[in-house]
Write a structure and sequence with these properties.
- Its cofactor is Mg(2+).
- One of its GO terms (molecular function) is kinase activity.
- InterPro entries: PEP-util_enz_mobile_dom, PEP-utilizing_PTS_enzyme, PEP_util_C, Phosphohistidine_dom_sf, PTS_EI, PTS_EI-like, PTS_EIN, PtsI_HPr-bd_sf.
- The chain is about 45% helix and about 15% strand.
- The two termini are about 35 Å apart.
- The protein is built from 24 helices and 18 strands.
- The strands form two sheets. Strands 1, 2, 3, 4, 5, 6, 7, 8, 9 and 10 form a ten-stranded mixed β-sheet that branches. It has an eight-stranded parallel β-barrel with strand order 11-12-13-14-15-16-17-18, surrounded by six helices.
- It has three domains: about 120 residues, Phosphohistidine domain (Glucose Oxidase, domain 1, 3-Layer(bba) Sandwich); about 100 residues, PtsI, HPr-binding domain (Enzyme I, Chain A, domain 2, Orthogonal Bundle), CATH 1.10.274; about 300 residues, TIM Barrel (Alpha-Beta Barrel), CATH 3.20.20.
Length: about 600
């Protein structure tokens, strides 16, 4: 079994948790985790470090808020083909075995998809499509014909595809971890050995891996997995997105994570990205006390977001589907700032009909009757390929015909989506606002706004993720009703750094003063024409950066729902003038580190003491 055994009884938080696997030290008897939401969760007590473990603090990237403490469970590494695997005697029979192995993987992923919520379900279905890609089987067949064994042929075929995906960047690069996970599982299937993944364990623990594929992250047992650490990944990886939605503290890009011995207790901070190996219990106690104070502070606040002097800042959720919407709709937030509609299309082999789309959209809008739901139209194209909307290969798909540029060439797809959105909006009474991705010019904004209004939707907006659109936001936003900053892509394009390249994570830090300058320019243009400007990138969920964004002129912040409470707290402790001073300090800094330090030092200590 490759995931936590969800059928086993959950251990009592008041009793020592015996290990059911040699990967968990029996001495690490207890664990505690505190979510980033309004209440903490977990047991009590402390885990003793195994003899010889040295206390050490390492810095990663915090991607899901909250703190956790517990023993390490190392995820089983990918299954590799045996060295010098002999060639096959019957290539046709071997190819049939390879095809069957990929199909086994696809079926397994689809079975997992039935057990999880909507966003994770769509990700798993999309990953199953990778396993059913005929090109992978064909590539493996060529390797078999070249004299390689079954497992080696699968591995070589997958690595050939992985190299192509990485060179293409964008959506393709984001799928490399998924592709390699599919390949490893197929290798395991053809060899008849257990698939890679999370081992069986019984006590609440912290999962550590090189990277977690969606198949692993989406099906983690939340009663046992109290924290996640990965050596790879990024702020917008599937691990980051799913962990935040599941309320599990997570840190990515932690150097040497996979070398931490299994069973060693670690303390992690999903806000700061700090991981302490074999921590002194005084540190753990301080972490718990801080989490308790934080939970109390968050519990005292509710309602609309606003600064201490009453300046309104709408606090919204990023969602990917119906289950996300149902969960977010029950929470204390003002609506949805980003509904990623591409999840409706990812696992489709043909374009969904208007009726099929409308049914999904009604399910998303219904929990938000009377509240806003900002919908991003299909964000697809050359770097997010869809079988029914293939415009052909491009040398640089990240800068190619994606987002609105695809819609311009396939307006039928856009019009059917807008028609379905209009039907669902009328049926549910939600305040539906529609925005287009990858808008670069005022002409593009005008074209989109016209089609939105022709389809009976009253409010049209644009994503500001292209620096050109940010610098000329006055002209772009004149054509529409609102703008929303996609800070993930805006940072990528401003710094000329692929956001999926872990080695470039410093350049992609949203605290980069150059990125803040571009955000400031976009907000200044919006203010000139009296248009609201939101943020729906991951930076909106950082409580300190949220203050800076408000100081730059941002009027709404959209994030994973679990991050809303601490951002609400940050706003409530600062005036608008405070936020503006913090923004000035950040932009005056030389480096991203300097900007963060300046803001942390100047922010109200009541906040910084809790994060």
């Amino acid at each position: 079994m490759t995931t936590a055994d969800t059928d086993a009884a959950t251990p009592s938080p008041d009793a020592p948790h015996a290990s059911a696997s040699p990967t968990v030290s029996p001495t690490a008897a207890r664990t505690e985790a505190h979510s980033g939401g309004s209440d903490g969760a977990g047991g009590s007590g402390g885990a003793a470090a195994p003899t010889g473990a040295q206390t050490e603090t390492r810095q990663g990237i915090g991607v899901s808020p909250g703190t956790a403490f517990g023993p390490v469970v190392q995820v089983a590494p990918p299954v590799r083909p045996p060295k010098n695997e002999p060639a096959v005697d019957d290539a046709d029979a071997a190819l049939a075995d390879v095809k069957a192995a990929f199909e086994t993987v696809a079926v397994s992923l689809e079975q997992r998809a039935t057990l999880v919520e909507d966003t994770a379900q769509q990700i798993l279905k999309a990953t199953a499509l990778i396993a059913r890609d005929k090109g992978l089987v064909k590539a493996a067949g060529k390797e078999l014909a070249a004299g390689h064994g079954r497992a080696t042929s699968i591995d070589r075929a997958v690595e050939t595809y992985a190299a192509q995906f990485e060179s293409l960047g964008g959506y393709f690069a984001e799928r490399v971890a998924d592709l390699r996970d599919v390949g490893s599982r197929a290798v395991a299937a053809v060899l008849g050995v257990p698939a890679p993944g999370v081992p069986v364990f019984t006590e609440p623990s912290i999962i550590v891996a090189e990277d977690l594929a969606p198949a692993e992250t989406a099906t983690l047992d939340r009663s046992r997995v109290v924290g996640i650490i990965t050596e790879a990944g990024g702020r917008t990886s599937h691990t980051a997105i799913l962990a935040a939605q599941m309320g599990i503290p997570a840190v990515v890009q932690l150097a040497g994570a996979t070398s931490i011995p299994a069973g060693v207790p670690v303390a992690i901070d999903g806000d700061s990205g700090e991981v302490t190996i074999a921590p002194d219990m005084a540190l753990v106690t301080a972490q718990r006390e801080r989490a308790s104070r934080r939970a109390s502070a968050l519990a005292e606040l509710s309602g609309a977001g606003r600064t201490s002097d009453g300046h309104a800042v709408a606090l919204l959720a990023n969602i990917g589907g119906v289950e996300d919407a149902v969960a977010a709709g029950a929470q204390d937030l003002e609506g949805v700032g980003l509904f990623r509609t591409e999840f409706v299309f990812l696992s489709a082999t043909k374009a969904p009909t208007v009726d099929e789309q409308a049914e999904i959209y009604r399910g998303v809008f219904a929990p938000f009757e009377g509240r806003r739901v900002v919908v991003r139209t299909l964000d697809a194209g050359a770097d997010k390929p869809l079988k029914f909307a293939d415009l052909g290969p491009e040398e640089n798909p990240a800068l190619g015909r994606r987002g609105l540029r695809l819609s311009a060439e396939r307006p039928d797809l856009l019009d059917s989506q807008l028609e379905a959105l209009a039907v669902a909006a009328r049926d549910t009474g939600a305040d539906v606002r529609v925005m287009a991705p990858m808008v670069a010019t005022a002409e593009e904004a005008a074209w989109f706004a016209r089609r939105v209004r022709e389809n009976g939707l009253p409010k049209a907006g644009v994503m500001i993720e292209v620096p050109g659109a940010a610098l000329r936001s006055r002209d772009v936003l004149t054509e529409v009703d609102f703008g929303s900053l996609g800070t993930n892509d805006l940072a990528q394009y401003t710094m000329a750094a692929d956001r999926m390249q872990g080695a470039l994570s410093d350049l992609l830090d949203p605290w980069q003063p150059a990125v803040l300058d571009v955000v400031a320019a976009a907000c200044a243009g919006a203010a000139t024409v009296d248009r609201p400007m939101g943020v729906c990138g991951e930076s909106a969920g950082d409580p300190l950066l949220a203050l800076v964004l408000v100081g730059l002129g941002v009027t709404s912040l959209s994030m994973a729902p679990s991050k809303v409470p601490v951002v609400r707290l940050a706003l409530s402790l600062h005036t608008l003038a405070d936020c503006q001073k913090l923004a000035e300090a950040a932009r005056a800094s030389r480096t991203a580190v300097d900007a963060l330090t300046a803001v942390r030092d100047a922010a109200i200590s009541e906040l910084t003491d809790l994060i």
